[in-house]
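for the record, two folds in this file. i put them one after another cuz i was lazy. first one right below, seq on top, structure tokens after. the second one comes after a little note so u can tell where it starts
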Amino acid sequence: MDGIASSATAVLLGFIAAHTQRIRLGSGGIMLPNHAPLVVAEQFGTLATLYPDRIELGLGRAPGTDQVTMRALRRGHQETEDQFPRDVVEILQYFKAPQVGQKIIATPGQNTHVPVWLLGSSLFSAQLAAKLGLPYSFASHFAPRMLGQAIELYRENFEPSEYLDKPYVSMGVPVVVASTDEEAQFLATSAYQRVLGLIRGESLKLKPPVTSMQGLWNTAEQLSVENFYTMAQIGSVETVRSGLQKLLDTYEVDEFIFTCDVYDTAKRLDSFTQLMQVKSGN
């Protein structure tokens, strides 16, 4: 996909893991309809063997592409509603000790016990994560509309498992943190332009920020972009801290996953640095 650098997710995770020492790394995520479960299990089993206790696997149900691309991925078969749950269960088994008589074994993969998350922007994955007792991550960084309903459904239907004894939820949050609210809003126009490109079917590559979005979008497009970024926290350290606390008070999530679509690399890194100040309270 134009503007997205992580199509070869496992390769990118391996590169990042090789250049870091402590942080945990996870896919956000592998769109399972595009991949064979055994291949995914062996890729992430390999990563977990090379980088123990640092790798997590996030699985999504959306194809994330069109039929032509799916055929190019050799995944042109028709997916049924039951296929995704079966594929998830298959991957979970590959990460365990092989059962007696199990003919297909992921190598590496077996006994790595890679933590598996289910990702989603609707109610389907919330219900499946609850049934399987897996952690659940809602894609509110781009599809916030059903966040509250999905989290409630997940928590109400959660069944304790060998993976979790109680529900565990994360939510995606777009952030831009800068020295002032005004600077952060300026930097955020790059993200707005990216979503505008998505709406129009144009390039998703980040563009330089602009002083005003007026003239770049019409009223309907502006509303769509603003709905897309309902959960976004944009501003100074204090502004973002206050906004994130409100999200915590409202949804009581266990983790946030942050995205930061800032055009300039140095300013994006600075945004993450200031985000750490939000966490530390300094």
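(here's the note) second protein begins now
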Amino acid sequence: MIRRRSTPWIHRWSRQLIGAIATVGALLTAYLTVLKFTGGSAACSSEAAGGASSCDVVLNSAYAEVFGLPLPLFGCLAYIGMATFALLPLAVKLDKNKALRSQLEAQTWLLLFAIATAMTIFSGYLMYVLANILQAVCWYCIGSAIFSLSLLVLTVIGRRWEDIGQLFFIAIIVAMVTLISTLGVYANVEGPREPGERITIESPSGQAQSGIGWEITSKSGESEIELAVHLTEIGANKYGAYWCPHCHEQKQLFGKEAFSKINYIECDPQGKNAQPQVCRDAGVKSYPNWTINGELIEGVKTLDELADLSGYEGPRDFKYSLR
């Protein structure tokens, strides 16, 4: 008597598990997509400099958009695709249409593997960006990366693959295409500069975060930091309002680290650590303003202008410029 080999439990439940994880991932990325479109702030326990959550630092960075659309939107579509391909064959009753069920299972497994591989490679790149470039903690991003890796593992162990060589071949092709495409998409995000070349800062988009404004996404260089320290040492003050787009442009010229060293005074009573009376005493009537060496200076100033006005004698390899 021939005993039939029992089917491992992971093979019986792999599609349900993939569908469940993908559904949670779709809800997570849908939430982030809505925040990106509405300009809302993500609920996050990690705080970044300036009072905004480090999740917002990531969501408002240049890496959070692809072709002008929120990156979480593409993640949401990928998760929806995974959930659809995982659960679609289960909708066909095995006892009524076994041939169609078997055909759908065979075709969708390769699609699941290819999509999960691409998602894992892309998530790996984003984890590198998170740790080494943005240097921020985003639990949503980390959670999504874990989901992607889990989906890949489940597609590999969730069935008995007859041709392992084909699997490796698909993985290599998908990984190469994903990596090359990813590097191409982000090639111009603060890429290498020619000597003397500066990056043009963009005007803020979306709604300013209440009381805080838009997150500073530019990265400071040595020159920006030294100028900021110099301005603080000579008693210079920068006046602004959290909702002021030109004030944000001034912050972007310095970059996140350098601007944290500037003596910034918030003039709007609704802003964080607001000092409206100090602004009135200084004669501030519009934003942004500076007081340098006792003189009130109006408007956004390039870092070269601030260096000249303040008598700064340090390096001037500034990274950013206005439009």
